[in-house]
Each structure stands twice: as C-alpha cells, then as structure tokens.
Backbone:
C-alpha cells in the first residue's frame, strides 16, 4: 500500500523559522531564496516531510534524474507537490507522481496548450474538471521524471477511472481531495493509498 502525507500551512504559519532551521543545508537555502513566505513555508514543510518520512537528513542522500527529479537509490519511490495551503508527499514501493492544486479559474491559454480536444471540452465544463485533468497531467509528467520536456498534449488522461497507455506504459490514477484541494497520483502498478496529515508536533517538536 502507498501512503500520501500532507501538511496544512494554516497549522505551520507561525513556525517558518523553526521549519527552515531543521532542513538539510541545500533545502534550507532553497527555502530562504523564495521571497513569498507562504511559498517558502510550503517548500520547507515538503523538506521536513521528506526528512521525517524518508529519513533524508543529508542532501547527499538524494540522487537526481536527467530532468532534475529527486530519488533515493535504494527506494522507496516518492513525489512531492504543494499549492497555496497544502504540501503533499506520496510514497510507494513503485514509481509514482503526484500533484495537488487549490481551486483556481481555468486558464484558456493553458487548456489550449496542454489539453487534447476531448480534455478541453471536459475542462471547460467546470473548475473541478479543469483541476482534475491538470493534476493528472502534472502527476504523469512527475511519474516520467521529464517535466514539461514531454508535452502534456501528447496524451489524454480521460476517463480518469481507467488506466491509459501513455508513452508505451500503462498508467493508472488515484484521485482524491484534501479539504477542497483536488490531488491526483499517477502510477504504473495499481495500489491503494492511505492518507495521513502530519502536524507540527510530528515534524518539529
């Protein structure tokens, strides 16, 4: 079984200094370079989740793929995402990608550049539909480890209930919500996921 952990920034908003202090050096420097304090806190809590759950206490413990995707040589596989209020960490014995997005209005430009015609029609029906497709697209690109060097318009994620043949591999999706924020995990091997919140006392004290 895979596991999805998350942090709610409302519970960490007065703990920025404590969070940053506990990070490995490079992760700390990354958070400190971010001007927006909420974005910096999202980055910091993501790093603390990796430290707490995966035991990543030193920057040297991470390796990186061709396009910058971090991984552990001995596993497990993991993927990180954050958006406005929440940071999430998906952990699995199998390769995985995850994306979370808070509610936002559909972007016509983004839809046109990144969605297939079928996805465009579906996304324009509601914000919920738009975010479902967008998180699935992002999760697939994180699963591949390519980022946007592989065009999201090259594949469709509809219907999300079914596995899809994408870039020669069968890919499935696990969709859910953390409060009102939709998230989607993408994977090669189907599995169930347990979802857990990590509180300040889990990561700091």
Residues:
């Amino acid at each position: 079984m895979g596991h999805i952990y998350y942090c709610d920034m409302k519970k960490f908003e007065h703990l920025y200094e404590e969070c940053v202090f506990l990070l490995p050096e490079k992760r700390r420097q990354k958070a400190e370079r971010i001007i927006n304090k909420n974005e910096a806190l999202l980055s910091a809590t993501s790093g603390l989740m990796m430290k707490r759950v995966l035991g990543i206490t030193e920057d040297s413990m991470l390796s990186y793929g061709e396009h910058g995707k971090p991984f552990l040589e001995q596993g497990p596989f993991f993927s990180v995402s954050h958006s406005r209020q929440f940071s999430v960490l998906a952990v699995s014995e199998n390769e995985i990608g995850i994306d979370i997005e808070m509610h936002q209005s559909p972007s016509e430009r983004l839809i046109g550049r990144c969605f297939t015609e079928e996805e465009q029609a579906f996304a324009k029906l509601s914000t919920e539909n738009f975010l479902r497709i967008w998180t699935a697209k992002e999760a697939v690109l994180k699963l591949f480890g390519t980022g946007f060097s592989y065009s999201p318009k090259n594949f469709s994620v509809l219907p999300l209930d079914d596995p899809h043949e994408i870039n020669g591999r069968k890919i499935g999706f696990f969709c859910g919500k953390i409060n009102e924020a939709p998230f989607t995990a993408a994977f090669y091997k189907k599995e169930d996921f347990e979802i857990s919140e990590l509180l300040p006392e889990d990561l700091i004290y």
